[in-house]
Amino acid sequence: MILGHGAAVSLYPRLAWYGFRRHATYWAAALAGAFTNTVFGVLRAYVLIALWQARPGLGGYDVAGAVTFTFLTQAFIGPMQLFGGGLDLPQRIRTGDVALDLVRPASLQLWCLSEDLGRAAYLFVVRGGPPTLVGALLFGIVAPHAPAAFLLSVALGVVVSFGWRYIVALATCWVMDDRGLGVLSMVLTTFFSGLMLPLAIFPGWFGELARALPWSAMAQVPADVYLGTADPARALAFQALWAAVLLALGALMTGAARRKVVIQGG
Amino acid sequence: MIRTYALLAWTWTRAAAQYPLSFALMTAGGLVVGGLDIAVIWVIFANTDALAGFGLTEVMFLYGASQLAFALADMLFGNVDRISQHIGAGTLDVMLIRPVSPFVQVAADRFTPHRIGRSIQAGAVLAVGLTRLDVPLGRVWMVPVMVVSGIVIFTALFTLGGALQFLLTAAPEVANAFTYGGATLTQYPLSVYDTRVVRGLTFVLPLAFVNWQPGLYVLGRPDPLGLPSWTGLLSPAAALTLAAVAALAWRAGIRRYRSTGS
């Protein structure tokens, strides 16, 4: 079956909508996740407050900025899937169902991206709202510096996050055990996204390297756009660049996977 | 009971040993994930000499003690937090009709020996912290006592979290806030938190007895709340009290459990 032009235009928005609705079914799990993210946000906030009391103005943030940074990055855990996962792909590769996905007359990568954007939109509200709200009530957080640029930066962050997770998921085609890859990806993402500590306070060349890597586009950069500690235009360009690089790499790997998969008839 | 637990755990260990490469990789993964915590502490102390009045070596000691206790509790009994999966899949029914305590069965089910990697990392940090601290011999005996008390406290937390899942089968992640949250909370000196929080952690949910109060005793430092220095010696008593509460909650959960019958 070849999709007509009109169908192709409406296919991806529809997939995004299905991704949204699918995750909306598991609202209790999402709220439980939001609860846990909030509790950890409170713990992290106290540690950062202690650090900023010892070193006021560290990394260009004041105490209120550091607290806001903490709760924003906790709010990103769900939509950006900072602990990894969120895609069905590794399981579909293991079971062989991916063969079906590859023969569909639509790009596997765009298919997954559309579903993932729907998922992220739902989790941005349900898992992002509570930590931000509780942070504002308990400690007080600052208002967004540039709300429109912030939302755009979050969207680009989700695309970068997807680009990375898609590559990790597709690597299951070549690596038999995907759990080790998952752990590696989680370690890189949680540390270099700014989730554990703001990358702005990483010392010396290590800090410069950390701020240039793609993971910073998933939490550090959107938080900086929110706080006004980064130039929005430059920040968005940085994210767009990494999104393009990772998506291109993913597209190359999809082509390679298509040639590698052998469909057993019968 | 202990024999059955050991037998089940050994069975799962032998199963894990069938895939030696996977086992080695997962153990190394635990070391790396633990190493991340150390990286965070390193970045913090690259920016400051003292965090809430405590230096790097003291933080390493407090971190190592609580994380070693947590890692061992997690390896031995952490699988209790998967009780909602057993309830959902109906496998809890099978466990209830066997002549072995369901707690032992749930705790030993899918026993994951590679979690030892996390204990090795935490133990190493504790050892480095202790050797650099110069603790007098008269107080160093408290270190093993506090680690064992910590294991009991964290096991009680896992059990309470498991008991909670009898009520919240659809949202087991809530329990993580207490178990993993407790582990994260005790990574740093409790003086970073608000004094009201520390009071709650001393008198209500006794997480202060994992490494804070006994740690202050070992370090010979006064308590910021003004409690006497022997408070740290009460760790075993606090641990046993929490364990008793957890045992009651677990029994209430099991009693309340109604199988779907399918």
Written account of the structure:
The complex is a heterodimer of chains A (266) and B (262). With 266 residues, chain A is mainly α. In chain A, 73% of the residues lie in helices and 0% in strands. Chain A has one domain (5-260). In chain A, α3 crosses α6 (108-126). Chain B has one domain. Chain B has helices at 2-17, 20-47, 56-77, 83-89, 91-96, 102-108, 116-133, 137-140, 142-165, 173-185, 195-203, 212-219, 235-256. In chain B, α1 runs parallel beside α6 (102-108), α2 (20-47) packs parallel to α7 (116-133) and α3 runs antiparallel to α7. The longest helix of chain B has 28 residues, at 20-47. Chain A binds chain B through residues 28-29, 31-33, 35-36, 39-40, 43, 46-47, 49-51, 54-55, 58, 177, 179-180, 183-184, 186-187, 190-191, 196-197, 201-203, and chain B through 21-22, 25-26, 29, 32-33, 36, 39-40, 43-44, 46-52, 168, 170-174, 176-177, 180-181, 184-185, 188, 191-194, 197. Chain A: It holds the Pfam family ABC2_membrane_6.
The class by helix and strand makeup of chain A works out as: mainly alpha
Work out the helix count of chain A: 12
Oligomer: heterodimer
What share of the residues of chain A lie within helices?
A: over 70%
* Spatial extent as radius of gyration of chain B: 19 Å
Order of helices and strands of chain B: HHHHHHHHHHHHH
What is the CA-atom radius of gyration of chain A, in angstroms?
A: 19 Å
Which protein chains are joined by the largest interface, and how many residues does each one contribute?
A: A-B, 32 and 37 residues
Distance between the termini of chain A: 22 Å
Counting DSSP H or I runs of 4 or more residues, the number of helices of chain B is 13
Helix content of chain B: over 70%
The backbone outline of chain B, from C-alpha atoms, is globular
Report the count of strand segments of chain A. Answer: 0
